Amino acid sequence: MDTQSWSPPSDGGNKTMRAAIMAVVTAVLGGYLFLWVMMPTNAYRQTWLPELRSQTASTYFGTTQGATFLVFTSPVMLIAALGCLHLHLRHKSRFNNLSKRSNGGHRLGKYQRPLIIKGLGIVSGIELAFFLMFIALLLWNFATYLHLSFSKITPNSAAQTGEKLWESKLGAAALRLGLVGNIGLSFLFFPVTRGSSVLGVLGLTWEASVKYHIWVGHIVMALFTAHGLCYLIYWAATHQFSEVLVLL
């Protein structure tokens, strides 16, 4: 028997199943990111979210936060489960060692080559792409929040609350900085471990993810620091420090 031409009979089915899993993971990840993009818009807050809450108002999901928990947690859990299956099938493949030598063990291997060496350290193409997409997501959410909130703040509405126009806008900006900071905080809860199925199926290594985790942490600290400073200025300008101290 010619051993060089022999291959396991299930290898073709293995590749097909892995390709199908990656297609599902890509679709779920795209939908998950799309939800983050739509979250600050009126369409999500006024139409989608009330509809989701009405459909999930039960004992299992809760009455108010169950929909948010379901929408933003279930996709990650599904990706993790599919990632476990994908990694299992990839390690089970007979030609796994050969593929690792040829393309780094992943179809995205060429994007894992170092792209930036100085400044941010050794950064690959896929790491830089994820980082830029994350920054774009934060900027989009903050800009959309400000645009929608500032459009409702007028001199008359500010006068009704006994505030100046800039004070009302500062309070709205402080609140939105906290909301944007929550986005980064949610990404910090992604487990960064050597055996993470989410990182493996996305083509991210554990070593690179630790560095990525630190970057996101610094961004979150900067956002929450700005959030707190804006509120301190707002409370000082509106003479609410005494009320805040009583609540504390």
From TrEMBL:
Q: Which Pfam families match?
A: Ferric_reduct
Q: Keywords in alphabetical order, please.
A: Membrane, Oxidoreductase, Transmembrane, Transmembrane helix
Quick check: keyword Metal-binding in the entry?
no
Task: Write down the membrane topology.
Answer: Multi-pass membrane protein
> Where is this protein localized, as stated in its record?
Membrane
Tell me, in one coarse class, where this protein mainly resides: membrane
Task: Tell me which GO cellular component terms the UniProt record holds.
Answer: plasma membrane
The domain of life for this entry's organism is Eukaryota
The name of this protein is Ferric reduction oxidase 2
Q: Which organism is it from?
A: Sesamum angustifolium
